[in-house]
Amino acid sequence: MSVPPAKPTNSQPAPSGTGPSPAVMPTYGRVDVVFERGEGTWIISTTGDRYLDFASGVAVNALGHAHPKLVAALTEQAHKLWHSSNLYRVAAQEKLAESLCKVTFAEQVFFCNSGAEACEGAIKTARRYHYVSGRPERWRLVTFKGAFHGRTLATIASAGNAKHLEGFGHPADGFDLVPFGDLAAAEQAITSETAGIMVEPVQGEGGVNVPPPSWLKALRDLCDRSGLLLVLDEVQTGMGRTGALFAHEAAGITPDVMAVAKGLGGGFPIGAVLATKEAAKGMVPGTHGSTFGGNPLAAAVGCAVLEAVTEPGFLDQVRNMSLRFKQMLAALKDEFPHVIEDVRGSGLLVGLKLKPPAGDVGNACIAEKLLTVGAADNVLRLLPPLNVKEEELAEAVHRLGRAFRRLPAPA
Asked: How many CB atoms lie within 10 A of CB 39?
């Protein structure tokens, strides 16, 4: 298994193993390791330890670390112009918007900086659509338990996770939560105040929950019958993560509004709200904005990512690697039935439903220099870069096996 060699560095970042700085607000339970460099699927700490990165910054580093095309795009733009604000036209932003519209259902795009902002923008777009259509009473959204749409006040209210809501006062109103995958419950939740249905095609943070494609199609039909907008949160599932450019394509549907982020920037912060012209008709000057959204640096990198992901054969390779990975993980499940209860997911958004605590398994993976991501329902997520090689998948499975052997023997 080839591992990139260490390179000398003149930087002096915080060393691993010294504990987090008290100057950083402790909103994360951080692993005590500091990374300084990455190459492809590998990420290297300040102590020189090499980790196989199957977290990808939580599905952000779609093309791995230091991808030459992204480095070139960012460097070229950095030598020209970093920021001018959305008070003026931004050439790279217009190029990225046109490219996104060309390969999706969308006709218009609003740029922001993150997935939470993209979801906030999508919510505002849906509400505003009904307002300018003469139906201001229609402002509520049907949402689903187990969802994760971000950490803003509106997005935590839309998902209803008690842990995320605790201590922040009364949840923002306007969301009616129903069980994920329950079409009847969604239909029953619709009232004269409903503006739309907001849903992740696959719930990532919620435990890598994959509904049947027929369910998404049924939601599309329900919205059409009821005069509602279908709002998709493809922040984690988009940009090729499931083997299609966007996950909803597998269901043969299109949304009215869609939130995108994470993989769109390949590691550079950018988010976007995609919409049909009709759905976005209420978003006129003064209704929404973002100081940094779609600035020249972010848009240049976004263009490079989109070009790479839509190259002929790229998504075919994602699907091929997904199939091989699931075959390898099925064999691992057979070897460790006391650890793995189920292998679930779509494309390279993979979840292991575990029997031991997922946190313990994640720590064992860290000890084996393998990065993973936790999720609800005692699930461990595996999110390799989309350009991962088969031998790297095999190495990850090998390290998973070693991590499992670190766990206490079953009683």
From this structure: 17
Q: Shortest CA distance to 100 belongs to which of 216, 210, 214, 258?
A: 258
- 203 secondary structure, DSSP code: B
- CATH 3.90.1150.10 intervals, the chain: 313-353+360-382
Domain 313-353+360-382 in CATH 3.40.50.10420? The answer is no
CATH number of the 69-309 domain: 3.40.640.10
Closest by CA position to 261, among listed 341, 209, 314, 200: 200
Dig out the tokens for 240 from the structure.
Answer: 């090729």
pTM for the full predicted model: 0.94
Q: Hey, what amino acid is at 296?
A: P
Q: Chain centroid to CA 274: how far?
A: 15
| CATH 3.40.640.10 domain range(s) in the chain | 69-309
Exposed e or buried b per residue across 81-100, where buried means at least 16 C-beta atoms within 10 angstroms of its C-beta: eeeeebeeebebbeebbebb
The pLDDT tens digits of the residues spanning 130-176 come to 999 999 999 999 999 999 999 999 999 999 999 999 999 999 999 99
